[in-house]
Amino acid sequence: MDRNQVIGFSLLAVLLIGYIMYNQHEQKTYYDKKHADSVAYAKAHPRPLIDSSKTVAATTVQTDDSATLALKAMQPPAFNGTAQTVTLENDKLSVQFTSKGAYPTAGLLKTYKTYGQQPLYLFNGKGNQLSAILPIDNNRSTADLYFTPVSKQLPNGDKSVDFVADLGGGKRVDIVYTLPADGYMMSCNISLTGIAASSLPLTWHAYVLHTEKDMTNERMATQVYYRNKNSDHDYYTVQSEEKSLNNGSNAAHWLGFRKQYFSTALIADDGFTRMDSKFGYKPGDTTVVAQSLASMDLPLKAAGATQSASMRWYIGPNDYRTLKSYDIDMEEMVPLGIGIMSFVKYINRWIIIPIFYFFDSFVNNYALLIVLMTVFIRFVLSFFTYKSYLSSAKMRVLKPELDELRAKIGDDQQKFGMEQMKLYRSAGVNPLGGCLPMLFQLPILLSIYYIFPSFMEFRQQGFLWVKDLSTYDSILNFGFEVPFYGDHISLFTLLMTASSLFLALYNRNMTPQDPNNPALKYMPYIFPVILMGVFNKMAAALTFYYTCSNLLSIAQQFIIQKYFINEQAIHAQIQENKTKPPTQSKWAARLEEMQKQQSQRTTPRKNS
Question: What is the Cα–Cα distance from 217 to 284, expressed in whole angstroms?
Fold first, then answer.
């Protein structure tokens, strides 16, 4: 392998490894820089996360005396009652409500299972709550009111439940939830009758449950997303310590709590006039991935004596097409490229995702789909591959002349470099011809790195020994942690590493080596070993793709070298180029000028 190709491969590997290892730190830096004011606000207004064990007080059975019973009889119906459970469901989603507070307590995704093949509840339990503060009785919370549920079956197949709270004196609260006949987007309409208010302060508690194979990976992928009415959107990765998001008076359109493959989000049709949120997780908790406590102001519209507002509540998968269908940028919750590599999201959005869904339209086996995508992408990039291998062939043809030049000049590396550039220029060879084509392929590699672990379609799809392509495959669990590697062996990661090493060896045998840089010949073998530890916990779909890509690269190089590159013709063309007036590019001219200046600075001056 010649020096330029080694530099090219090394640059690709350094960029990839550096970004993977720096990704989490970069996100944290980005968050801290952009939202320093939020941190200051959180310190000035401390509010701990809700503790699910203390959310609902234990019910105490006691005997009421006659005076207490008489007092209760005089109170409005909303202040006394018994909590009931109401369920709305369609073929995809089942939502359970409590009549005390009129909010969902459980969200069951009926067409999905947990990694352990149990019913998949995105949230479930008393810690999940949506409540509003009413401007009555010194600000009473709807969580303390008893609602009367009235269920309805609508003509179009939708189902709804109207929770009615009679506060007495002509005051009434209606909270109506409507679940469509198909889909994951539930609507929520709140109406206040006889209660004067311009907005409602809302509080939303959410506890998302562990559903995937690896809790660590699931938490790393858990984030809080939001979108403002001006279409600006952002995200924050959940961490063990509490973090705060203070959106202030900037109208927020929606706030989403995203797990690795599922999300729950509140969408205000007219926007929230204020929003702030706290989020985090308890490291020792093995059932709750993370928790969020958000507060926002929901503006009300007046219609006579009634004030009302409408919201929507998404409880469903992070399926790109499903989220995009709502046309409110919720597909941004599917990570396509973030941080310093955010530019690859456009490659994913306009190239990789359309290719994936094109093959998905007629291929049911997702392992076969990955193979087809690999073949297609390698074919599209074959022009750059050919140019790289052609440059290597030119270097091989010139190697005898370079060896003669090196023997003639000796150890004067600067003079050799200048003469080498003259030889390249006269022969019409670009010294960067083998490096630049590989750099053009780097964005595709990064795009696949982001999008493959995010494809909902890979979840719980098996292939050979792999039970789930969306998580790492494990053929052996150690029972202990190996530094820089993990607690298991991923076979696809080993195959990816082995194919990368074989590809490096094949390239080394097909390209000339620089004897003055013996250390460079080992560089292509070091990076695959480093990547083996980085990718050991990556999705099997990703490592399977890279394995297929390496194997196709080997086959592609063999075919190009055998059937498309004629070294005798290349040698004849180079000799013909030498007879023509040399044409020099600006880059080559600049490089030669730099070498001349360096040579002049290091050449000893003769005594006059």
Answer: 15
